[in-house]
């Protein structure tokens, strides 16, 4: 953890005008500075930065905060990440409190310097990178290096008086029958950075025909390869500005794309795109282009990624590079990839077309298998989109739509059913924002609802396709609340419920002592709700 006093010292030297001015253009106006708000679209500046109060405020959307809050919101970073980003802007060295989970990540920085020096001294490794098309600036930007023998790396750690046990915790070494050995040996090294530019792991590419072409560190306390995107630290600013992210398969693809000015490119780390990657993508709030190789492995990975993204409502499309080439190869040949990225195929269309390409539709057995795959995919989508997708699949497969048996087909909104709008709005809001589900379930019991208790239970059971639940979700008269309104609606419902419980106590067959005890608890709950 970062020590609180260290954070306060950083705040004392950080100037909000300098920090905000690094991201947007400010104009002096009186004692303050103004700009168009970066958090909502506007033509007339309503965003004000106050050097005296060391805060910013937008009179249009209400965004307010200090330097750290601005970095958090603008770069979509967590609080600790924003503090570390701010510290890097001022070359300020933060102090950390040591606990059982604390490790010295500067070990990886020193090891990277060692690897970089080894690359300079290894002509074979350096020539490999030059032959792949990388220039010197790119090699330096991505801090590429070379991992020598295991003994050389162990000797470096010992001679540098770095704790070898902590280096092992960070993934540098592993334990075998003959003791410690380095994970990366005789490989080009690719440091993997966190979003705030701290090295958290390494990947390596063999130059000695080792059967494992690429190796990544195993997961550690500070690194999870199923959550991490390679190159995101370099790509974040461009992604936020362009509102677009390109996801490719490997290190070299990312590096060559950045060299060719596609600096919004990132890669997964030896894994397929997973559910664990999705929170990062949601934070970035950008259109996603999945761009994979044209071999069977690449196409299958693109189908899986597109399926996952379509099921979770992401905007974007997929690109497949033909003729066995990858982005790095094409850039080396001097090809312009702009038209390829611009002509991406939307995720749903891509999944259907590429799935059908795997089958011989003239063969009745294979056509049945293709139909089953497509139908299962459609059923996994949001019920509101299923009908349109079924129409498209029906046309492209030449199969009547009725055979898809889309559940959405028989769902009708029962306009005669009584709708209690306060309850229904909470249900619809949580249905459309499922990341709220656990938080709401913690505070709101179905017993509190009077009209839609059963529908709330269906929501908690994640029975999202149930017609009774969709009667509410598909009703245009039921509004979706913003987060603050959702919380206020729940608070109001709890206040009413506790107040009614308090009144009912008078009629319950309890002793005076029991009634008084229950009444104190209920009044305390009501008081807490009024204070929040």
Write a structural description.
The chain is an alpha+beta fold. It has 24 helices and 16 strands. The protein has 5 domains: 4-89, Zinc finger, CHC2-typedomain (DNA Primase, Chain A, Alpha-Beta Complex), CATH 3.90.580.10; 106-216, DNA primase DNAg catalytic core, N-terminal domain (Alpha-Beta Complex); 232-355, Dna Topoisomerase Vi A Subunit, Chain: A, domain 2; 359-410, no CATH class; 421-531, DNAb Helicase, Chain A, CATH 1.10.860.10. The protein has helices at 4-13, 16-21, 67-75, 79-89, 106-120, 123-131, 136-141, 150-159, 164-169, 232-242, 251-259, 278-284, 296-311, 327-332, 338-342, 347-357, 364-379, 383-397, 421-432, 437-443, 453-460, 467-473, 483-504, 512-531, and strands at residues 27-29, 32-35, 47-50, 55-58, 64-65, 145-147, 173-176, 179-182, 187-193, 199-206, 214-216, 244-248, 265-267, 287-293, 316-321, 345-346. The protein has a 5-stranded antiparallel beta sheet with strand order 1-2-3-4-5. A 5-stranded mixed beta sheet has the order 13-12-14-15-16. Helix 13 packs antiparallel against helix 16 and helix 23 (483-504) runs antiparallel to helix 24 (512-531). It is globular and about 85 Å long.
Flag low-confidence runs. Answer: 408-416
- How widely separated are the two ends? 28 Å
Strand content: 5-15%
Range of helix content: 40-55%
How would the global form be characterised?
A: globular
Q: How would the blueprint of this fold be written?
A:
Elements: H1 4-13, H2 16-21, E1 27-29, E2 32-35, E3 47-50, E4 55-58, E5 64-65, H3 67-75, H4 79-89, H5 106-120, H6 123-131, H7 136-141, E6 145-147, H8 150-159, H9 164-169, E7 173-176, E8 179-182, E9 187-193, E10 199-206, E11 214-216, H10 232-242, E12 244-248, H11 251-259, E13 265-267, H12 278-284, E14 287-293, H13 296-311, E15 316-321, H14 327-332, H15 338-342, E16 345-346, H16 347-357, H17 364-379, H18 383-397, H19 421-432, H20 437-443, H21 453-460, H22 467-473, H23 483-504, H24 512-531
Parallel strand pairs: 12-13, 12-14, 14-15
Antiparallel strand pairs: 1-2, 2-3, 3-4, 4-5, 6-9, 7-8, 9-10, 10-11, 15-16
